[in-house]
Specification:
Layout: E1 3-6, E2 13-17, E3 26-30, E4 37-41, H1 53-56
Antiparallel strand pairs: 1-2, 3-4
The structure holds zinc ion (ZN).
The site of zinc ion (ZN) has 9 residues, from loops.
Length: 60
């Protein structure tokens, strides 16, 4: 299952990876959203999380 990596500059999805490697890996690419060259660490911290409505909506 592909994981979207988020751009550290604009925070939008810059690319997908098929999995998180065990070794630290960086992906360098031109972000399609902000058109800047960005270097993204290929690990869980850079994976764009999908929103979880149930975490935000518990206050009645
Ligand atoms: Zn960007």
């Amino acid at each position: 299952m592909n994981k979207p990596l988020k751009c550290p500059i604009c925070g939008k999805r810059a690319c997908d990876v098929s999995g998180i490697p065990k070794e630290k890996l960086f992906i360098e690419l031109k972000c399609p959203n902000c058109n800047k060259i960005v270097k993204i660490p290929c690990d869980e911290s850079a994976v764009k999380q999908s929103p979880h409505p149930h975490l935000a909506g518990c206050r009645g």
